[in-house]
Amino acid sequence: MSTRVYVSRDASATSLGADEVATALIAAAGAGTIELVRTGTRGLLWLEPLVEVETASGRVGYGPVAPADVPGLLAAGLLTGGAHALNVGRVEDLPWFKSQERLTFARVGIVDPLSLADYRREGGYAGLERALAMKPVDIVQAVTESGLRGRGGAAFPTGIKWKTVLEAQASQKYVTCNADEGDSGTFADRMLMEGDPFTLIEGMTIAGLAVNATQGYIYCRVEYPEAIATLNAAIKAAYAGGYLGRDVKGSGRRFELSVRVGAGAYICGEETSMLESLEGKRGEVRVRPPLPALKGLFGMPTIVNNVISLATVPVILAKGPGHYQNFGMGRSRGTLPFQLAGNIKRGGLIERAFGVTLKEILYDYGGGSRSGRPIRAVQIGGPLGAYVPASQFDTPLDYEAFAGIGAMVGHGGIVAFDDTVDMAKMARYAFEFCAIESCGKCTPCRIGSSRGVGLIDNLLAGKEPVHQLKMIEDLCETMIQGSLCGLGGMAPFPVKSALKHFGEDFVPRTGH
User: Fold this and answer.
1) Which residues pair with 248 in a beta bridge?
2) 17 has pLDDT over 80
3) Which domains does the chain have, with CATH numbers?
């Protein structure tokens, strides 16, 4: 009888050699000895390529494994969970993993992403089955009661957005998924699409039932070829299984779904720019109102939600809104996948309920900086997120708590910097990034970002520093108040936070 062996097919794992390890395992073990299952990643990226073996006591992990390690591992009894220097024990028992609260990512790293049978066996489609027996208004109410807020960064209550679309009168409605994950230090969307695509498909189908929409689109960035291929294969399997199409599971309800690929413009992560791109137009911000919920794709009422928002819906419907609402703090309910990147010892993804502190994530999970030096600052919420100094690492990760210190949780991406970082350069980069990625529609963003680069250069060159600081402050306020979307409106956040907490880095430099 063959032994089940699991190796990740996630892009992060394959970039570290997971495909080569899988090939080496098959070659060295011999025909019929192992059944190799390619899963998503557990999120323990410092242990990738991670090899897990199914034993009588559970799945035992080995990592990080190189192809050259395979013969020695097999000789040491890999297939029975034998002792070896790379043996990390049962992955579920690792403190880093055991203390997580995995709701949205419950199946990632466990199932074969393209196996509908695996998905069903692990509780998949239980939420849709419940939704099919409910009225649209009751589905919307369940999502509202759960307290789910948009996981793309804006944190707008999902139920309110859905209620607006449901009550809108139109001949056609749409469900769109914003999978244009462009923020630095974020990879949760990609991990989920590659590791458990059916949960996103299920969530979008439930959303369609909730608002009487019959067509859905997943807008994915071109830089995610593995995710795109996985989604397309999973959608095909869902159609074959009767979970998509003109008659979803014999209910008489219709929901069609397909993937659309964006060309890689950061601005298309903004919801109205994404809709413009979906319509075949240049990715450019729309003036609001009207809101997309009333006049979105092709002028019709449209749900626009992030991958994690939609992928969280199935667990809410399956276990009830109260179950999900029990996690978190204040108005931040449920869990969020936090992504650890930058100068960090143990990078990866953890899913925790809101309320965990930044210090816990950086040190209990991340293990401190990779360099061994003190962590001086972290940027949360992508390249336009504020920089948080070490003095504020005890702040609980909660939308309101972070807003209170002038920061944002955003999509949950956390990028760490040790004490060698030059914060003036990081502030300058925020303006530079905005200038490159601006769609050009509004003046504060298009002109202000370029002007900001010049002002910081003048400041560091010692050209009337007091005047330059005043000009930077005025420019930031203009961009925040006058920009059409979050790109120009948020670019000042990293600049202002860097000036506030790391002012010593902005002292004029000789020979700059």
Assistant:
1) none
2) yes
3) 3-93 (3.40.30.10), 116-325 (3.40.50.11540), 328-418 (3.10.20.600), 423-506 (1.20.1440.230)
